[in-house]
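Ticket #4471: structure output looks truncated?

Reporter: J.K.
Steps to reproduce: submitted the chain below (133 residues) through the standard prediction queue, then opened the result file.
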Amino acid sequence: MAGQDDFEDGGFDVDDWRRLRAFSGAVATLEDVQRRAAIFALGDTEGARPIEMELPQPVIWWSEDDGEQAAVAVQAEAHETDDGETMEVLGLILPDGAGAVALLDDVDLVDDSDPVWRRLVTEAVGDETGEEE
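Returned output as attached by the reporter:
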């Protein structure tokens, strides 16, 4: 479950991720996505509600396609499927500014001091100091 679009705020690094705007307190609509306030909107589910969690939230996303990736969750919603199961969905921003959609079960919530998250962010954005190692 992944969609890639550039998010309005662009990418982030280990020091400036907090500036990313969260979409919280409501369930996103297609209009929210079109005006780039939200990453996703799901229209084919029942009982949609926001998940109460602090956003933005650093995460390590375990993507089937790309493996382990650093991201920041900026949107969190729970949706009921036709089968009556609850699907917890996150809207993510990747270090390069791309947006992605992931299930909460496919991420680890981490602190921005987590060494794996910091390494993954740094690898994704490259060394911006200009210094050679």
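Triage note (M.O.): checked the attachment and the full token line is present. The longest strand covers residues 67-80.
Status: closed, working as intended.
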